[in-house]
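Hi P.,

Sorry for the delay on this. The queue was packed all week, but I finally got your sequence through. Input first:
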Amino acid sequence: MPTLTTEAVTLSSGADRRVIGTWALVQALVPLAAYAAAVLLPARWGAGRTGRAA
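Then the structure:
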């Protein structure tokens, strides 16, 4: 099963630059989405709490 990285390496050896750019953008967005979720989700889950446990 190919991964994003192996596909990007394969494409970099001679594919269209637009396709390579798209794959690079996808590779950048995957970790960005994970970091955004790690920052935003705890804030939303704890928004209804009035006190904090020590």
